[in-house]
Design brief:
Strand order of the largest sheet: 2-1-3-4-5
Largest sheet: 5 strands, parallel
Number of domains: 2
CATH topology of the largest domain: Rossmann fold
Number of strands: 10
Oligomer: single chain
Distance between the termini: 37 Å
Helix content: 40-55%
Protein name: SIS domain-containing protein
Organism: Actinomadura fibrosa
Structural class: alpha/beta
CATH class of the largest domain: Alpha Beta
Keywords: Hydrolase, Repeat
Number of helices: 16
CATH superfamily of the largest domain: Glucose-6-phosphate isomerase like protein, domain 1
InterPro entries: GlmS/AgaS_SIS, GlmS/FrlB_SIS, SIS_dom, SIS_dom_sf
EC number: 3.5.-.-
Length: 346
């Protein structure tokens, strides 16, 4: 029987198409806020925080603005006022109902920031709290692990980047839905998929690594492995991995390496795959084109998209891998233990 998670993975092309069509006209609203701000502060938790990592790299590398990730406890626990004049605060929440995120956005506004919300919850408290609300069109998501709400958040953040003046082409974003549909078919017909599933089912965990614009994808894939498969998974930039934690990669701890098919971090990802293999461990690629596939033990296909939008599709083979791995391990991927769709934190 098809899991809800798998069904929602398959709904992503349409969800992305609806979201892009709805949000691209909002770039003017974002540009108006951009004229009054200098830097960006992202407010998020969980999968939304991994989306924020993508947003940070996009804004800094292509829009030329400093971007940082907020520590919500400064607002909610320490209740410390900061000078946020000139800051654009962007809060991300799939439901728009996480009280900590809403409270932190209100705090940011009270500290002088201009505010944007990215949420799938039209009419939610978060959408109501923001000056500009970018409402994604993912539709209802019933499986607890975020799939289509995550990729549509990335689409909204791509639109944010365009509104902030990123030096990219909006047409690249319109190519994403068809590429995601193609990638779903390619991944599910890949001989590498069952091979990687069987090998991961036999180990206690893995390291998941990427860098730059693909780093958020590595973090999200690691999170999905942990929450849906109950395996240990460490998400790291490959730069941080090389500073010491690479010692954990061995014949019982393989590396999953994610990369776009082009961009400045691809050569380093390929070099890392060769180092892992040379140390006697297994390296599995996700994306990265023929170069990464050739350096890995096995590899899943990646999107043929420019690096700046590649993460919108790059996570999709990882989602399919996780759904297959969960079922192989006898875990229901739709309702991981201990998790709810909306998480509230103190």
């Amino acid at each position: 029987m098809t899991s809800r998670m798998r069904a929602e993975i398959g709904e992503q092309p349409d969800a992305l198409r609806r979201t892009v069509d709805a949000l691209l006209p909002r770039t003017a609203d974002i540009a108006a806020l951009a004229r009054e701000t200098r830097q960006v502060l992202f407010i998020a938790r969980g999968s939304s925080d991994n989306a924020a990592v993508y947003g940070r790299y996009l804004v800094e590398s292509h829009a030329g603005r400093l971007a940082t990730l907020a520590a919500p406890s400064i607002a909610t626990a320490y209740r410390r006022k900061l000078d946020l004049d000139g800051v654009l605060a962007v809060a991300i929440s799939q439901s728009g109902k996480t009280e900590e995120i809403v409270e932190t956005l209100d705090w940011a506004a009270g500290c002088g920031a201009r505010t944007v919300a990215v949420t799938n919850g039209a009419g939610s408290p978060l959408a109501e709290a923001a000056e500009v609300a970018l409402i994604t069109r993912a539709g209802d998501e019933l499986a607890v692990p975020a799939t289509k709400t995550y990729t549509t958040q990335l689409a909204a953040l791509s639109v944010l980047g365009l509104g902030l003046g990123a030096d990219v082409e909006a047409g690249d974003l319109r190519a994403v839905p068809d590429e995601v549909a193609r990638l779903i078919d390619l991944t599910e017909s890949s001989d590498a998929l069952p091979e990687i599933v069987e090998e991961l089912a036999a180990v206690p965990g893995a390291v998941v690594s990427g860098r730059g614009i693909a780093f958020g994808t590595a973090l999200e894939l690691a999170l999905k492995i942990k929450e849906a498969c109950y395996l240990h998974a460490m998400g790291l930039s490959y730069a941080d991995l090389l500073h010491g934690p690479i010692a954990v990669v061995d014949d019982r701890t393989p590396a999953l390496l994610v990369a776009a098919e082009s961009g400045p971090t691809l050569p380093g990802t390929i070099a890392l795959a060769r180092r892992v293999q040379g140390a006697g461990a297994r390296a599995y690629g996700v994306g990265g084109g023929a170069g990464l596939a050739g350096a890995c033990s096995a590899a899943l296909p990646g999107p043929g998209l420019p690096e700046w939008v590649a993460p919108l599709a790059l996570i999709v083979p990882g989602q399919i891998l996780v759904e297959n791995l969960a079922r192989r391990l006898g875990v229901d991927p739709d309702v991981p233990r201990g998790l709810n769709k909306v998480t509230q934190t103190d």
